[in-house]
Amino acid sequence: ILQPVTPAFTITPGTVCKNSQFTMDASASTPLNAIDPFTWTVTTVTHTLPTPGFTTAIPDTGAHVISLVITDKGGCKTPAVTNTVQVTGPAAKLAPGAGGCKNSLITLTDQSTPYRTDAITSWSLDFGDGGNPETFPSLPLTHTYADTGAYDVVLIVTDAKGCTDTARIKQ
Predict the structure, then answer these.
(1) What share of the chain is helix, strand, coil (3-state, %, to 5)?
(2) Residue percentage of the chain with pLDDT more than 90
(3) Burial class of residue 145 (count of CB atoms within 10 Å of its CB; 0-12, 13-18, 19+)
(4) Dmax (CA) of the chain
(5) Which positions ≥6 away from 131 have C-beta within 8 Å?
């Protein structure tokens, strides 16, 4: 008869941004040398691994349940232990600016939304005309194009927790 195993795990970092890597670590499960394998379920996807660490990302904001089932070397499984991770992050959205005459100022319309109360703190724009990306600490988002044409514009918004999201449009 084998010694009973006890599952336990932590999640780092404490703030989990959508589409960003985070790690679950079950090395606090005991006794560690009696466990094989570790079965993780993140939302609805299951991963069975021989090691206690697992890194993944979640593409959607909100509360997501993570569970761990460990199996001892004799094949006995523990009941699942769960932890809920709150995934946060803004949603970037940008509308093209009106006008577009050569060497005239245009204003792009930011339609980005923060997640809950995590305010958007910066807007970084690559206007697609070969210049360096510009970072704006506040609105409005303005730019002058030196030539006519269609440009691929990329917006990256960052919120108060450091989470980011990206939107692309044709200007």
Answers:
(1) 0, 50, 45
(2) 74
(3) buried
(4) 80
(5) none
User: Which of helix, strand or coil describes residue 154?
Assistant: strand
**From the CA atom positions of the chain, what is the Rg in Å?**
23
Q: Residue 101 — very low, low, confident or very high, per pLDDT cuts 50/70/90?
A: confident
Q: Who contacts 28 (Cβ-Cβ below 8 Å, separation ≥6)? A: 8, 9, 10
> Mean pLDDT over residues 44-61, rounded?
94
- Confidence at residue 1, expressed as pLDDT on a 0 to 100 scale: 56
Strands 81-88 and 62-72: antiparallel
pTM of the model: 0.84
DSSP, collapsed to helix, strand or coil, labels residue 90 as: coil
Q: Give 59's Cβ-side CA count (13 Å radius).
A: 3
Distance CA 55, CA 75 (A): 25
Q: Round to whole Å and give the CA distance between 33 and 116.
A: 42
